Q: What sequence folds into this?
């Protein structure tokens, strides 16, 4: 039996297919091809000059004993685990406050949003580097309130702190997504709840949170993917140091590829990274009971 | 009472957000000593000559040259992105076709594909094609709806344009392409503006792709010349020059955001676009 397509009369069934051709071609060229070739390269010892030899899963085996890789994977996971919840909670709180029908909301919204659009600009990354030098603005402020200065670039957890602070500073994009979702919740829900004797805090847990489930999940996935790929900030600000405490997987892949020309290994690592991200997103999907269709 | 507390909190928070940027502008006028001795951002004296020196950069070319390079990437890229995004979103939003569900699922998948997985093989592919160190690797992918979030945002917007518009035009004898150009594109103007703005800002911010693909200093976009300058200015060197270069480098983004912020801050960000 011929399948029926619901199209306006006179429209051929392949019209839509023709229209999405840019996407199909782009998918083949820029997603499927690199994805597969990355996997295949990961099975070789290609170094960019010599023809590649097939070495099976040696690159993957090497990762388990490579302290550099294990450290970078640990740093990346730790960074993601600290940054993402902090950023989500902070964005949600500010979005809730801004949603309280306050005057001048537009101004605050803009002010909070600006850092997120400039944040990955290299100019801002350079500025951030200056703020945390030994006598930079951060330490001057600590001094003003009577606290001891921090050796930001010398201390392993402080160095990661610099990068986490930079990314937290850019909470605006996450906040905007929350804010737009909050505005879609009809005020009548809260009024009805109030009549039934439901307080503000219970209202938040009983009405707001359940209705925000989808956007929370969306923000979570977007932020996890971004954090796992962190490259610009550690590359420019800390150079991965001190003692490789901010050396992320993104930096490792870049170095293996362009400093050591170990392209087989670099591709194997980027594949492991893909699997890691897919796993984390998969687990979150399972835990929140969200199907793919919701995204 | 409670409201006042909220305002104070928000204002404090806003100051923390904005102060680093004010500090950056102020510090670009300061001597090294002044930068590291006071938290107050307003400089003791305004000497614009630092901007003249910053404009000269650390290379043989001026900042003007690097602005030109950056725009030589942004303009074609944005143009390509708008065309490919509109076509793809139109196909997904308004038509039914074989394997639509499969393609839509693949499309959603690409949105969550980490760029770092695909960038290394892409580098090798462009290298084999012999186009490394040109702007082709930076602009051509935009022709193929490479930015999934743009398509997603546009599909959402298409859903808000009544299908009756299409039907009425079809009865009047328009074909699918004419409907798109004459009826739908005018309705889509706000979302097209958003695509342009995000394409502009993201390209300004992009660092990894040009870092990998572009190797000659002459062809550097702004982000790479900033890195080069930051790397080549040691500790004793006058810091204000690199800070002034950073300020210059931020001006286009701030200007574009300022012009467009009303249009895209409300509503359209529903597609999950982030910075």
A:
């Amino acid at each position: 039996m011929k399948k029926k397509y619901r199209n306006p009369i006179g429209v051929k069934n392949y019209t839509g297919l023709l229209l999405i051709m840019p996407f199909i071609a782009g998918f083949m060229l820029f997603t499927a091809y690199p994805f597969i070739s990355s996997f295949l390269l990961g099975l070789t010892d290609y170094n960019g000059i010599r023809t590649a030899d097939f070495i099976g899963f040696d690159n993957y085996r090497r990762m388990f004993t490579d302290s550099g890789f294990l450290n970078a994977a640990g740093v990346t996971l730790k960074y993601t685990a600290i940054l993402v919840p902090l950023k989500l909670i902070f964005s949600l709180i500010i979005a809730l406050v801004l949603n309280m029908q306050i005057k001048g909301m537009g101004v605050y919204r803009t002010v909070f949003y600006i850092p997120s659009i400039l944040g990955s600009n290299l100019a801002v990354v350079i500025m951030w580097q200056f703020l945390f030098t030994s006598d930079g603005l951060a330490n001057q402020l600590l001094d003003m309130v009577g606290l001891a200065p921090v050796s930001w670039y010398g201390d392993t957890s402080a160095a990661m702190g610099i990068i986490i602070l930079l990314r937290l500073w850019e909470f605006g994009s996450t906040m905007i997504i929350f804010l737009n979702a909050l505005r879609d919740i009809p005020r009548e829900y809260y009024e009805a709840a109030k009549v039934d004797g439901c307080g503000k805090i219970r209202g938040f847990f009983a009405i707001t949170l359940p209705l925000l489930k989808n956007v929370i999940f969306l923000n979570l996935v977007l932020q996890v993917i971004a954090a796992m790929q962190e490259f610009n900030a550690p590359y420019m600000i800390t150079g991965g140091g001190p003692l490789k405490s901010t050396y992320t997987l993104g930096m490792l892949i870049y170095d293996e590829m362009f400093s050591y020309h170990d392209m087989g290994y670099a591709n194997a690592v980027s594949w492991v990274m893909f699997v890691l991200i897919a796993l984390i997103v998969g687990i979150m999907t399972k835990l929140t009971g969200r199907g793919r269709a919701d995204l | 009472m409670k409201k006042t507390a909220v305002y104070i909190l928000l204002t404090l928070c806003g100051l923390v957000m904005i102060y680093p940027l004010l500090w950056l502008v102020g510090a670009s006028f300061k001597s090294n000593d002044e930068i590291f001795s006071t938290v107050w951002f307003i400089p003791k004296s305004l000497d614009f000559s630092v901007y003249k020196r910053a404009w000269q950069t650390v290379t043989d070319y001026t900042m003007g040259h690097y602005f030109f390079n950056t725009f030589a990437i942004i303009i074609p890229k944005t143009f390509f992105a708008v065309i490919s995004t509109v076509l793809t979103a139109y196909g997904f939003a308004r038509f039914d076709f074989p394997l639509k569900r499969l393609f839509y699922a693949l499309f959603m998948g690409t949105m969550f594909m980490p760029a770092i997985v695909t960038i290394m093989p892409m580098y090798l592919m462009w290298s084999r094609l012999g186009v490394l160190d040109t702007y082709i690797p930076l602009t051509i992918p935009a022709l193929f709806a490479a930015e999934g979030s743009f398509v997603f945002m546009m599909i959402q917007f298409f859903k808000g344009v009544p299908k009756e518009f299409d039907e009425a035009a079809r009865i009047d004898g328009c074909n699918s392409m004419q409907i798109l150009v004459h009826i739908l594109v005018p309705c889509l103007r706000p979302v097209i503006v958003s695509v342009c703005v995000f394409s502009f800002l993201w390209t300004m911010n992009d660092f990894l792709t040009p870092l990998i693909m572009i190797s000659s200093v002459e062809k550097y976009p702004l982000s790479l010349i900033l890195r080069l300058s930051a790397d080549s200015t040691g500790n004793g060197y006058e810091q204000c020059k690199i800070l002034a270069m950073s300020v210059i480098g931020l001006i286009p983004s701030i200007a574009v955001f300022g012009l467009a912020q009303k249009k895209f801050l409300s509503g359209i960000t529903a597609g999950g676009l982030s910075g």
Observations:
- Residues 177 and 193 of chain B are 21 Å apart (CA to CA).
- Chain B has 14 helices and no strands.
